[in-house]
Amino acid sequence: MKGIGVQTKNVVDDKCPTEGFAMLKRAGFSCADFSLNSYLLNTNIYRSELNEFFSRSIHELTQFFAPHKKAAQEAGITVNQMHMPYPIYVPTGDRELNDYLWNEVAPKSVELCAFFGCPHLVVHGFKLARFLGSEEAEWERTQAFLDSVAPRAKELGVVLCIENLYGGIGGHIVGGPCCDAKKAAERIDRMNEKYHAEVLGFCFDTGHANLVGLDFERFLSTLGDRLKVLHIHDNDGISDLHQIPFTFAKTRENKSSTDWDGFLRGLKGIGFDGVLSFETAPVLTAFPEELKMEALGLIDKIGEYFAGELGR
Amino acid sequence: MEIICSPKGIIDRKRPGQGVMDIAGAGFGSILLDLSMGCSEYELEAMGKKRAKPLPRDTILVSKHPKELYHVLEGMVEKCRAQNLDVPVARAPFLCRDTKHQDLDELIVTLTEESIKICGRVGCGALIVRPISEDLNFYLGFADLARENHVMILLENECRDFNGHLIRGFLSDPSEAAEWVDELNRKAGEERFGFCMDAGTCSLCGQDMQQFAAVMGSRMKAVIVRDCDGHSESSMLPFTSVYRGQPQTDWLGLIRGLRENGFDGRMILDISDTAAAFSPILRSGLLKLAKSMADYLKWQIEIEKTMEKYSSIVLFGAGNMCRNYMKCYGEAHPPLFTCDNNRSLWGSRFCGLEVKPPESLLDLQEDCAVVICNIYYREIEKQLRDMGIKNPIEFFNDEYMPDFYFDRLEDR
């Protein structure tokens, strides 16, 4: 196992990144998932409310993030994965919005990922099946987007990682892009063959998988070594809550209603040796500020427990 | 496509007359012979447990006397015959999703065999079996008996209970389910196995129903249509599990999938929980609505058949619905023109069609259909009839299109 990580969101602050990365280190983490997506929020993108953050030049952006990079290095934290802002395409948005997302936000995210020396950039596939009529047509659009950033990602040694997502129907969460492991595996292989390099991999999101009843072990077994990074978090099977694993039960026996054993069996089965990375930023706003360290410490401890189980 | 009503929640097996009458009275022509009504999952789960209250003296527990399965439901079958209700599909008894029993496989085999014999006896050609084993030979073991009784075994997609959370189970992956059916038939040497897609189970697991139905193709002989909130097991009337005015079941995915599949099998409507919750006084009215619902779903799935009936059509409406019609069906079924009540549009062109005043419909050849592309269907239909138009009038609906525009036109 290469380490245990968590999102930088709600921990690392732009005003004093040193403090945040040091906090992660004190809590026990060795890695971080840099939340680039928090610089352009999805809620704002859907409302076409863009900020100017990604309008800056690459030079300006790298200058902006230089203190973050330095702070991570000083704290001994490896930025092993990063999240590109999402969505990168809004079907009901105007051309200006989508051009900005495709031509400014996406390529600059790749550059910033490389600037941090981070090997994995998580990207969201497009949610267009309803409009286009099929998941295949939806993937074609996602692939066109990936093709627009893949050559530069290849040059910079960044692996783009597609993630299992969900959609909503009357408040009921249903499977979305990349929820079919077989198709994802085929598409990743096809893309990597095309570029003669590993430009595409997978990010398995436990919370999203739990919401749509995926069989963790089976899904991971199908992905095999295409699995590059993780978003580990828990929920009640109903809403995307991004909470600490083992916190939800549904029966009088009070056993976890998320199949963590299946998750571990799946990882073990494919010999996963990446980072056990938690996507649990909302935990840190749910807990009182005074308990933030303890909350982070518990997340790290769960990571250690997972690592221990995987090492058995 | 044949519409079948599931009797659970409607028919009392001990006094089946009224429930059967309500189903027939609503216009259903067929009923599912649900043999789990003779031996329920709860009866099976209670096996070996001490009862709080003794059972009435005349109670026959089929779980103890599997051969009695037909006997306990015979009255229901006879009443169905008397009401001319066909029984084309049956369902074998099954276990609870969260069963604690690991010792009932043998009993389930016996009950399934008994179910096959009952199918043979009543002339029912298909039996839905909920899988309990991941061993192909388990199901092949039923092939000879099924052949003797002229029954096709329909396996069903499963979800499994993981500490109270229902997640994807055996045969929930359509490509694997398709391989299973093909392999079973190959080994049986004939088409003895098929598939029944339970749309409610798909919904509970947040599955892509379009993909499911499309991948299953002609292996899919039946579909169970029921609504639920996507989290708890229930069988509700379609379009009744809603949140903020939106349905919680992916009806778009299901309809698209069944269209892609070219589905022409059995559509089993299961509204058992809604029916059981309704007062018996209201139940006959509920069943009439349920029948309309099933007819509506069938119409949506077969929407192109409506257009195929006519050698020529014209549209009424020059807005979003007309635009959607032209996007999805304009090439295969081109209208002569469209018309609209908005006089400012008359003489203009919309989506390649000339927009004419309603009066132009009076000049149509008598077999040309007027297809209303506007949600004020009944009001427009009345307008046209009041104008003296005698042509066939059809409604078009764009809620479940094969694809959609990214935008909607503003008010025209």
Structural description of this entry:
- The complex is a heterodimer of chains A (312) and B (412).
- Chain A is α/β, with parallel strands linked by helices and 312 residues long.
- Helices cover 47% and strands 15% of the residues of chain A.
- Chain A is built from twelve helices and ten strands.
- Chain A has an eight-stranded parallel β-sheet with strand order 9-8-5-4-3-2-1-10.
- In chain A, helix 1 packs across helix 12 (292-311) and helix 7 (181-195) runs parallel beside helix 9 (216-223).
- The model of chain A has no long low-confidence stretch (mean pLDDT 96).
- Chain B has 412 residues and is an alpha/beta fold.
- Chain B has two domains: 2-301, TIM Barrel, CATH 3.20.20; 306-395, NAD(P)-binding Rossmann-like Domain (Rossmann fold, 3-Layer(aba) Sandwich), CATH 3.40.50.
- Chain B has helices at residues 17-25, 41-45, 69-82, 105-122, 136-140, 143-148, 174-188, 199-204, 209-216, 251-261, 272-277, 280-301, 303-308, 320-329, 377-386; strands spanning 2-5, 30-34, 86-91, 126-129, 152-156, 159-162, 165-168, 193-198, 220-225, 242-243, 246-247, 266-269, 313-316, 338-339, 349-350, 353-356, 369-372, 393-395.
- In chain B, helix 15 (377-386) links the parallel strand 17 and strand 18.
- The mean pLDDT of chain B is 95.
- Chain A binds chain B through residues 91-92, 129-135, 137, 166, 169-175, 179-180, 182, 210-215, 218, 237-238, 249-251, 253, 255-259, and chain B through 159, 162-169, 173, 175, 203-208, 210-211, 229-231, 241-244, 246-250, 252-253, 256, 401-407.
